[in-house]
Amino acid sequence: xxxxxxxxxxxxxxxxxxxxxxxxxxxxxxxxxxxQSEAKDEPEKKADSQVTSSGESYTVYLIxxxxxxxxxxxxxxxxxxxxxxxxxxxxxxxxxxxxxxxQQSACVDDAVSDDADAILIAAxxxxxxxxxxxxxxxxGCKIIYVDSPASYDCVTALATDNNVAGKTAAxxxxxxxxxxxxxxxxxxxxxxxxxTASCVARxxxxxxxxxxxDFTLSDTVYMEDDANNIKNAVKNGxxxxxxxxxxxxxxxxxxxxxxxxxxxxxxxxxxxxxxxAVLALVSEGIIYATMQQNPTVMxxxxxxxxxxxxxxxxxxxxxxxxxxxxxxTKDSM
Length: 333
What we know:
The protein has helices at 2-12, 70-86, 101-113, 130-138, 162-179, 197-209, 227-239, 250-262, 276-283, 295-310; strands spanning 58-63, 89-94, 118-121, 142-146, 156-159, 185-191, 215-217, 221-222, 244-247, 268-272, 289-292, 319-322, 326-329. It is of the alpha/beta class. The chain has two domains: 2-159 and 294-323, Rossmann fold (3-Layer(aba) Sandwich); 162-292, Response regulator (Rossmann fold, 3-Layer(aba) Sandwich). The strands form two sheets. Strands 6, 7, 8, 9, 10, 11 and 13 form a seven-stranded mixed beta sheet that branches. A six-stranded parallel beta sheet has the order 2-1-3-4-5-12, with helices on both faces. Strand 1, helix 2 and strand 2 (89-94) form a beta-alpha-beta unit. Helix 2 packs across helix 10 (295-310), helix 3 (101-113) packs parallel to helix 4 (130-138) and helix 5 crosses helix 6. The protein is elongated and about 60 Å long.
């Protein structure tokens, strides 16, 4: 492993990037949803006795887009579960302070300088961190995508099929509008950033599902780490009688719901993810439905596949696992 540090010195001297932030532990409520995995089946062993089959010790990092959304905490929970089952793993969760390619690249570089054997990463953008990922691979690091892949090669990507999930959200919106007898009108679309590939794919699927209808979908408003961008857009939309709003992730969903609630308004809100804040708004009837992803599965199976790849029992490359979505409404809670 010492070779990694000596080779990395010359790499890091050419970069002046900001730090990665610190751990957070927000709470989350996640309904259980067993999913089919790409992980190779092995005989079940007790968590206190199961170790890597080779007896080797490994260092594995989880790097997320930030450390604030409780969605990332549930991926961390899944990682910790796998670590306790497998054993012989030093595991660390880090991430930037904001959705920023340079900061996330710095996190990748930090993991490699710590002799990481594998990195699970939710990429901030499709292209922005590829240079750091390439250098990580050159140092022998296995790359596993969780939730949001970059365009660089990997062992596997465990994520929601976001285009399909966006279409599911759209069909749920249509059903809710139909129940209210609404057959036309404008729907507001809220995104994270223009470069957040997972959310862009959800938006594309949502828009595709509304093609040929009498509904108008607004230009996307991006949060860009500022909740007021969403809340102000929702207030403006309500003043223009928007019939619904679609949030493409936890942050946009919460801020749409809170804005609708603050205005004491009625509108169909469809969102993503299942943090305490989102589920509270669903239970109040402010948010009609949210798409529950399966981030715990992403983390658990991501760690499992990473270790299998390191030990040579998982030899595929660039595989994909759709971890699916479940529609959560007030009636289904």
